[in-house]
Amino acid sequence: MAERALGPARPRRAGVDAALSYAVSVAVAFAAVGVFLAAMGFDVPRAYGTILFTSFRTANGFAQTLLKFVPLLLLTLAFVVPLAAWKFNIGGEGQLIAGAIGAGAAGIVLPGLPAIALIPLGMLAGIAGGALWAALPAWLLYRFGINEILTTVLMNFVSFGALDYVTTEVWPDPAAGHPTSVPIAVGARLPLLLASPPLHAGLVVALAVAAATHVYVNRTTGGYELRAVGANPRAALLHGIAVRRLSLLALVLGGALAGLAGALEVAGVHHRLIEGVQSNYLLLSILIGLIAKGNLIAVPPVAFAIAVLDVGARAMQRTMQIPVEVVFVVEGLILIFVLLSDVVRRR
Amino acid sequence: MLRAGQPGGAPPLEMRGVRKAFGPVVALDAADFHLREREIHGLLGGNGAGKTTLMNILYGLYRPDAGEVLVGGRPAQIRSPRDALGHGIGMVHQHFLQIESFTVAHNVVLGTPSSRGLRLDLSGAEERIRTLAARFGLDVDPRALVAELPIGARQRVEILKALYRDARILILDEPTTNLTPQEVDALFGSLRAMVDEGISVVFITHKIREALNVCDRVSVMRAGRRVLSVEGREASDEVLVRALVGEDVDVRRSLLFSDERAARPTPAGRPALRVEGLSVTSPQGAPALRDCSLVVREGEVLGIAGVAGNGQRELVEALMGVRAAAGGRVWLDGTELTGAEAARVLAAGVAYIPEDRLQDGFLPKADVAQNLILGFHRRPPYGRGPWLDWPAVYDAARRLIAEYRIRTPGPHEAAVNLSGGNIQRVMLARAFSHPCRVLIAHNPTRGLDVPSTEFVYTKLLELREAGAGILLISEDLDELLLLSDRIAVVYRGQIVGTLPRPAFDRYALGRLMSGVADGG
Ligand SMILES: Nc1ncnc2c1ncn2[C@@H]1O[C@H](COP(=O)(O)OP(=O)(O)OP(=O)(O)O)[C@@H](O)[C@H]1O
Ligand SMILES: [Mg+2]
């Protein structure tokens, strides 16, 4: 299982070790898949070139990558923070959708407000939506000890229904062919860091939140307690830590982070509620969290790398007709090798 | 290949020039070991001396960096526990793992060839387990759920696991640390029965008396080497202690061997901890602790004697605020703590050494420093408002590691890598790291080697001198007799008698502990 990195920076040797095992894992995963692609008659160097460099060849590619990076980063945090307390939040996409609905509602219902009030309000509504969505599983865990894995997953399905209802019944946009809401007010949209290709300011928000999360988990007594609960709940309890309360908090915090991701997608990218906002982010974020082994310093670079692969994979599918799933296989293999390298080193 | 189970007993076994380093830590350095046929071979050694590592190599869990293993005189390649079992070697670990939701039989057959089919023939296995259990006096019901078994029975399950796989050489890593005296006697009986059938046993322990009682031969390890092997009859306390701690320690001056159980002024301080009518009900609804009242005065050690499972755990849990009491009240220095959460109890000045270090006190995935602050993390110098001051934490950890001689490369080392006794030292260093009004110490020397045990005793008596009240719950009568000012005996959740120091008497305590006498 994922090993939670605890505490401040380890001695340097451990860092070098870890970097090396990542590099080897990535290389081996690509090599293994490359053999298969070559056997199937594909042009492997060109395919890999597309996967790795699409993000860096054009400004557009780079902007696209960053736009993917933002929700991936936040959703991974939503998975990793509860994981520190050894709680499994598999409800990131439901919480993202709830956050999107919250932010969307604010932007649609209050068009008269000035941007300076409406943008933060939308973000807050998103955070509240996500937190609320996680609060039910968290409460069920707190009150009755019901396993959070099941309940957070189930809440995903409820969110699909809710989004469908909002986009087809409450604020439907009849002109769109797809379940979509009317657009949010212009004042609710995030400012752009870059006009063309468009890149919204949510990137800054996401990075700041990632830094704050790191500080909370690794530098505060609350974060220490969270990780103590994750490491051994009984020992934590006997040493004065409110285990059940913290587990509840961890899940709600995860929900809030996912909700913020949803709000940024609505206010920064789509400017409306749209079915499918959650994309395949949940799966990728769990993958990122596990590859990073829950380490909050490793999460942003890993999330960025996965965003690069994802953008590259789509380009490869368009230009070379190689299915994007190839890249999922590579990512899965990287995860397996990273986990394996731990086992090997322990002997 | 030399197949196990041959008539004529287990093959002799030899390890030569074994070296094993974990990064900078050299756990074994040119260690050798010789196990004869049909013997119980005691293996002693200080905490971190390398006993567990040596046996893990024999069992195929670690590869040695150098050296060889010979079974029946021929070199053997042991790369995994399966190879080890192929050579007839089985092991019961210091901290073993079982699947709690499975039955005994299920746990035993798990991983054997017969369990890999689609259907599991458990009834055949149960029969065989019953036969083995009867033959060796390892009383356990194959159909019982492991989760419901006490620790002693679980250990018998582990032994049965090895025997079920036809082990002819059985390694037991500190099997007696968690057992009651009765269970220890029963275990020794079983070991004898095994040797009579030709099985050889390696028995790791810290208790010299046990080694002298039961072993045919005893070896002592120190700093990664075997430094002594003697025949059981020729061994004595003194020879073994000398080998354990080195030549330069004066054994005779040691607190452990002192016989001054004699008079000590009766402490007359104010009550530090007062408990009145405390009752605890078990989750199943049975009374686990009944109407327990006690007072620990300032500068007093109140010993609680009793066979494990007579309410000690419930008493501690109720005092620490992690288990709701069905009735009764608790005061610390006159402040009522009835029903207070653990955080408040600790803040009020209680320090705590948990009974089961792994479950109750240890964060395996954290590093050593993070383990050393658990429970004190909100207080200065570690916690400052919402912030944790990591430099202060690591500084303090370095100090504690040196003072308590915790064998580890440093405060950043992952705590899982510590040896059993060194984990216990972390528990102690933590409890003693802050001044306290009351110390609740539950089996504080479990798994500690001789010098460390003595060190703990010194610390406890220092704390007593400093005016703290100490509640010492222990299954080790010698320990209680040595340290306590009074001893209260618990039996079936009740305090059945309290003896003051002048009236200490081993047999009287024993009678109270087994519930046959009424105390005063
Ligand atoms: N997996 C590991 N990684 C790093 N160091 C280890 C590992 N296993 C053991 N050590 C170190 O090797 C030394 C010997 O440990 P070992 O567990 O063999 O001691 P031991 O004699 O069994 O002690 P104890 O009586 O405390 O159980 C210790 O210093 C320990 O910290
Ligand atoms: Mg050991």
Notes on the structure:
- The complex is a heterodimer of chains A (347) and B (520).
- Chain A is mainly α.
- Chain A folds into two domains: 16-42 and 322-347; 60-320, ABC transporter involved in vitamin B12 uptake, BtuC, CATH 1.10.3470.
- Chain A is 74% helix and 1% strand.
- Chain A has helices at residues 12-39, 44-57, 59-84, 92-109, 115-144, 148-170, 202-219, 221-231, 233-238, 243-270, 281-291, 299-320, 325-346, and strands at residues 192-194, 199-200.
- A two-stranded antiparallel ribbon of chain A has the order 1-2.
- In chain A, strand 1 (192-194) and strand 2 form a beta hairpin.
- The radius of gyration of chain A is 21 Å and the shape is globular.
- Chain A starts with 11 loop residues before the first helix and ends with a helix.
- Chain B is of the alpha/beta class.
- Among the domains of chain B are: 13-88 and 168-253, P-loop containing nucleotide triphosphate hydrolases (Rossmann fold), CATH 3.40.50; 272-349 and 435-513, Rossmann fold, CATH 3.40.50.
- Chain B is built from 17 helices and 22 strands.
- Chain B has helices at residues 51-58, 81-86, 104-109, 122-136, 151-164, 181-196, 208-214, 237-245, 312-319, 342-347, 357-361, 368-372, 390-403, 420-432, 450-465, 477-483, 506-513; strands at residues 13-22, 25-35, 40-45, 66-71, 74-75, 89-92, 169-172, 200-204, 217-222, 225-231, 271-281, 287-297, 301-305, 327-332, 335-336, 350-353, 383-384, 387-388, 438-442, 469-473, 486-491, 494-500.
- Chain B has a six-stranded mixed beta sheet with strand order 6-7-8-3-9-10, sandwiched between helices. A six-stranded mixed beta sheet of chain B has the order 16-19-20-13-21-22. Chain B has a four-stranded antiparallel beta sheet with strand order 2-1-4-5, covered by helices on one side.
- In chain B, strand 14 (327-332) and strand 15 (335-336) form a beta hairpin.
- Chain B is globular, with a radius of gyration of 24 Å.
- The model of chain B is unreliable at 1-7 (pLDDT under 50).
- At the A-B interface, helix 8 and helix 9 of A face helix 10, helix 11 and strand 18 of B.
- The structure holds adenosine-5'-triphosphate and magnesium ion (MG).
- Adenosine-5'-triphosphate (ATP) is lined by residues 22, 25, 27, 45, 47-53, 94, 407-408, 417-422 of chain B.
